[in-house]
Every structure is written in structure tokens, then in C-alpha cells.
Amino acid sequence: MDKILRINMSAPGKPEIKIDSMGDYAGLGGRGLTSAIVAKEVPPMCHPLGADNKLIIAPGILSGTAAAMSGRISVGCKSPLTGGIKEANSGGQGAQVLARLGYAAIVIEGKPEKKTLYKIFVNKDGVDIAEDDSLRMLGNYDTVNRMKAEFGDKIACVSIGQAGEMMLGAASVAFTDMELRPCRHAGRGGVGAVMGSKGMKVIVLDDAGMKMRSPKDPEKFKAANKIFVEGLRKHPVTGEGLPAYGTNVLVNVVNEAGGFPTHNFKSGRFDGASRISGEALAEMETERGANPTHGCHRGCVIQCSGTFFDKNGNFLSKQPEYETVWAHGGNCGIDDLDAIAMLDRLDDDYGLDTIEMGATIGVAMEAGLAAFGDAEAAIELVKEVGKGTPLGRILGSGAGVTGKVFGVERVPVVKNQSMPAYDPRAVQGMGVTYATSTMGADHTAGYCVTANLLGVGGTVDPLSPEGQIELSRNLQIATAAIDSTGMCLFIAFAILDQEETFNAMVDMINAFTGLSMTAEDVSALGKNILTMERDFNLQAGFTAKDDRLPDYFIKETLPPHDVTFAVADADLDRVFDF
Amino acid sequence: MAEGIVTVRFKGGDKAFSVFQGLLTQGFECPLKTCGTLKHVLCRQLGISESYLNERVQTIFLNGRAVDDLVGEVVGNNSRIALSAAMPGLVGAVFRKGGMLSSLRNPRAGTTQDASLENRLGRVTLKLFNLIAAELGPEFFKNGILIKKEQLIHYLGWKKDLLHKACPAATVDGRQVETDALASSLAGAEYVRLFVDGDE
């Protein structure tokens, strides 16, 4: 993984392929690499859909190795949704296959003169790019089926659906899973729109003949990986809860806490929560012969992704994630798992971020386009996006645009990106991260990576209310660093609770790279990434006013606890004081 | 039938238990001999072992508020308690009892009980989530859970197809009843004590 594949779509005649050395980017991966390239090579004031923007697809530092859980891949660019820097990441096979092919990143730059669609095929022998307008306005599922027919079934695909081709703000980039289903997505921030603006429909990766990446110290690496896997398997979250119920296990808990945004963030409790919970979903899947315990990529130990079959026992979609079940479920008043899975399938096929689309439909319902709880109407609204109707293009542009077009005041966005599935009034620390993240409202920006254990930013008093700012800061730093490794964030609990598992992860990185990274190095990496991202956003025109939640989160109380978001602006402005 | 309570008993082994597990996540009522601390109520009155509570139960809500101190929290009449195993994600860590990220909660969310309620007779609603439902559920079903009739009827309507496959018949106060006719056989009752037997 010592080269960067650059594809210049502006080259006269045909896109130009160039293979670069890592140069100044040596040692970086995942979010660290995507943000470094965007920060250095993309003019902050450029139009996100113009020739000056770049789309970077980068596996993590450990991707393509035998390291368990190392299959995350980052997609970076200037976001057409937020106007700032963006890193959206995904599971699926893309990270492992691209890394084994030796590429640290694919950078798609420029913009084709004519409106032609392209497909790229990358294997051990090189890179081939070809026009293919027969793929126009195909969904991700049909696109992948066409690639399978052309290149065989030992491939991995990176593609966009109709939403990406239409360059909509909610458009995602799809990655295929182990069964070649385009159901894992770099969803956030409209990264699919940037891929569409480059005329790139699909990238086909074939790692046949390529070997797993070799560590500098194979014995130490193998031993560390073994301890790491044992730690994941014995921990109740990664070894039991997630495999049994998937991420959707959170529905009942968040609902009980009064933090499950319902009816476009009007309440923190949804009466139908138990009907769409992880427990109900797992029971339904098992009854229909689907599998609630399934990995999204090779080397996954946690196996939280699952499959969802329809009433007739046919595959419909992946097991909807917690965020999807919330967005299309409670947020829209829908308590029907079949309808939610159908919405998930449509989002995946059209290439849409499920969080953005669920929030958008919630805003549309508040505007009166459909009644809360009307599942059929919600499905029809999402289908409008696939058809590319004027209404569909508005909805596919996200909650912010939809709110403006239909005159809705209560629009749950920060930096124009929809909030995920935790009301910041009930979980204030999450609100701090929503407000200040470089990415816009993002639940993974400050994830559960133990700040104290990593020693990032010093030790804070967790029981102090003032600690919210410090914790959010430290979590954002730690998450930025972990996002560079290619490791799935769900490892967080095991490394939080089990020191030997945390140490095994560090040993694994060091044995692979031949480095001797310390907690200070991890901290420095995270801070460096955030600094680059913040600087880019400042140059793109962001100010402190963009680090705020919408007004109504401060003014309107959230039932059942009747709380507001009460963190002061001055405190929010301290988050990046490091 | 005593005090508007009928006894409904299903048999059907693990499949039957699976069908009814969702009732545990919705919540059921537990009469208390006395109110008291959270630890007293859960361990002494509801029969959950202290070691299980300490090790397996990682998140506890009392009236919708995540709590950390089982001895300092008082459970009053009509309280609502929810128990969960370890949860993923940032929010899982935030709500975890004694977790280092607990400061990310909103400290004003939820109400605390008045300590003067201690020793009053009462009733609580108990919710069991995820692995806790799977592990403690059989024992609660063996002893019977108390739920409102309307809740059971609504639930049976939702699980109609699965119920037919898992346990087509039940007994109501000892009388055999087809599940299709169950709702009508509960006329006049306010509450149901529901037993689900693990053995075929």
C-alpha cells in the first residue's frame, strides 16, 4: 500500500491514469489521508461539484492485513452538503481489496467535458478505464449485477446510484459486502454527488493474485491479533450484544432514556419503539430464515451486520442499522420493520444516506407532505428521488433544502447535515460533538474511544458537568486517529474495558508498521487531522456561528424529561482549544 | 378471578418464550412488598442476584434516568425500572452505570424519588432489554408476569402469525382456549398474570 492511483477526469480525450508515490502522505491512511489530501490539494472555496474538488477513497493503515476488524474505508472531499471538509467511512469489502492491490488511495480529480459515465477496473495487472453510458440511471444493485456479469463474482465494487448521478446532497458511495451486495455506504455529506460530478459510476476492484499485506514483524503481529480477537469475542458488547441484535439493539435503551428523536425531534420517546427494536428485528430475521449475525467484510469478528428477508423469505436488504431504524422509523412515526427495511433498500439502491433521508422525510412530514406514521407515503416520497422528479431532487438534497423549500422552521441540521439518532437535549455531550464536529452533525465524530485510556488531551473528571467539553474534544481527537487505522469503531468497548485488548491493538499497529507508536503519537495524529480539517473549514468560510445547534434545541423542551440543550456558546467555542 | 386478574398460561418451549420476549421489553408490573433502594428492590424483592446485577446488567434506568448508585437511589410507588446489558456506541457508554462518560448525559433529565417513599407498599414497572430479557425472562415467565389485559391483546395481535406456529392454545384460569378466542375469554379482567412454560 505504497502508491496512490490518480485519475484525472479533465484530461483531453480520455481520463488520464497516473500512479504516484506516497510522497508527503507516507504513513497515512483512512481519514488521515483523505483529509490531508483535501486540505493540501483542494481549494477551500471551490465549488464542491466543480473540477477543483477531489474525491479520495482510502483504506485504513491496517486494511488488507490479517488484522481483525480492519475493513473500514474512508471517502473524502469538499462536501456539497456542508460546504466543508468531509470524511465518510464505510464497511464492506472495498478497504481490504483496494489495500491488497497496493493502493493507499484512489484520487479522482478534474471533471469530464462531456456527460459520459465511466467505469474503472483495477486488478494486479493495472488500471483500465472505459466509457459506459449503458449504466446511466441504474441503481446500485443493477450496476453491481452488470459488473458481476462482466468481471465475475470475485470482485468488490464502489458505485453510485441515481442520486449520485443527479449530484444530490444526500448521495452516498456504495461498497459491496462479501456477497457482492451494494449495501455498505459512505453515507454522509453527499460524497456520492462528488463521484457523480466526476462522471464516475463504478470502480471495480479485483485482488485475485494479490496476497495479504505483510507486517514488519509477523510473529508479534500474529500474537497481538490473537489477543485482540480473543478480547473482542469475550466482551459482552462485541462478543454477544452486537452479534445477537446488531446496532439496532440501541432502540429500546435510547428510547427509555428519552433521547430517541420522534416525529422530527418533537419528543424523545416513541410509542412504537419495541416493535422496531433490535430484539424484534432479530426475532423477525430468524423466523424468516435470515441471519442476524453476519459480517460486512472479511476479517470481521463482531458480525453485527445481518440480513433482512421479506415476508416471502427473499433477501430485501441488509439488517437495517440503528440509525436507519430511527431515521425512517421513530423519526417519521413508523413502527413497521418491513417498511423500514424497504426504505433501507431504496436508499441503498438509489445511493442515499439513510440518516439524511430519514431526517428529510421527517421534515417533509412536518411540512404536511405526508402524515407521521404513514409508511406507504414515506416509501413513495423516497421513490420520487429515484425517479428524479423535481420533488425527488428537493428531498434528495437533504433536510436543510427540504426545510427551506417547504417553509419548515424545525430542521435538525448542523452545518446543513442532519443529526443522527440521539437527541442532543437528552444527551448533551452528543450535542457538543454535533455542534462542533468538522463534519457537521455526526454521531461517530466523537465515538466511544476511551479518552483517558489513550491519554488524549490529559485526564478529565468524567463526573464533572464541565467535563462535557473536554470529553467531546478528546473523543473527537481519538476518533480522528482511529478513523485512520481502518479499524471498525465497534472495537471501542473492548479496548475501553480490557487493557490487554487495547494493548494488543497498539502492538498490532506497531508490529505491522515497524513503528513504536505511543499514546502521545496517537493524540498528535488525531489533533493534526482535526487541525487540518478545521483550517480547511475556516478557509471555506465557516465561523463560530456554524458550531451551533439550531435555535429550537435551546428554546423547546423535549418530552418526556422536558430538557433543553444548555451548553453555553462560549463553552462550545473552547472545544478546539488544544 | 381475583381482583380482576386472570391467569393465562402458554406452553411451547423456547419458541413460545421467543414470541413473548417482546413483552419483557415493553414492560410488566411487579408488586412490591415495600419500596426501598434500587438494590433492595431488584435483589431482595425481584430476585435478581447481586452478582448478576453488578456484572451483567450494565445500564439501569429509573424513571427514564440512567443511574449509577444502586444503594443511593430510592424506588417509589409506580416507578419504572429498565435493565440492559452492555450497549455499543457512544450513547451506550454514556448511559452505562458508573461509566466514565456519564457526564455527557443531561443532568436535568429525569426525576429523583423522594426518600420518604421508602417502606410504602407499591408496584413498579420492570423492563428487560436485550440479553437481560433472554437470560432473566424464563424465570420471570415461570413465576408469571403481570400485565394489563389491553397490552396483552395488542401484543397478541402483533404476534398473531408467530403465536399460531409456536403455541396455538393456552389456558385461561385453567380452561383450554384457542389463541384466536383468547381476547374474548379475558372479558371483565383488568390484568393478566401470564405464564410461559419452558417445557413442551
General shape of chain B: globular
Question: SSE string of chain B, helix = H, strand = E?
Answer: EHEEHHEEEEHEHEHHEEHE
Largest protein interface, residues of each chain: A-B, 61 and 44 residues
Q: Supply the helix-strand structural class of chain A.
A: alpha+beta
Mean pLDDT of chain B: 86
Work out the helicity level of chain B.
25-40%
User: How is the largest sheet of chain B built, in terms of strand order?
Assistant: 9-12-1-10-11
Uncertain stretches of chain B: none
Oligomer: heterodimer
N-C termini distance of chain A? 32 Å
Q: So how many helices of chain B?
A: 8
Rg of chain A over CA atoms, rounded to whole Å, is 22 Å
The number of distinct β-strands of chain B equals: 12
Instruction: Output the structural class of chain B.
Output: alpha+beta
How much of the polypeptide of chain B forms β-strand, as a percent range? 25-35%
**Main sheet overview of chain A:** 6 strands, mixed
| Low-confidence residue ranges of chain A | 448-465
**Residues in helices of chain A, as a percent range:** 25-40%
**Mind telling me the C-alpha Rg of chain B?**
18 Å
Helix tally of chain A equals 23
Apparent shape of chain A = globular
Could you provide a short overview of the structure?
Chain A is α+β, with helices and mostly antiparallel strands and 578 residues long. Chain A has helices at 30-41, 94-100, 140-151, 162-165, 191-197, 218-234, 236-245, 250-256, 278-287, 322-329, 337-350, 354-366, 375-387, 390-395, 399-406, 428-436, 451-454, 467-482, 492-497, 499-513, 519-539, 552-555, 569-572, and strands spanning 3-8, 16-21, 54-59, 73-78, 85-90, 103-109, 118-123, 126-131, 156-159, 173-175, 184-186, 200-205, 307-309, 315-318, 413-414, 417-418. Chain A starts with a strand and ends in a 6-residue tail after the last helix.
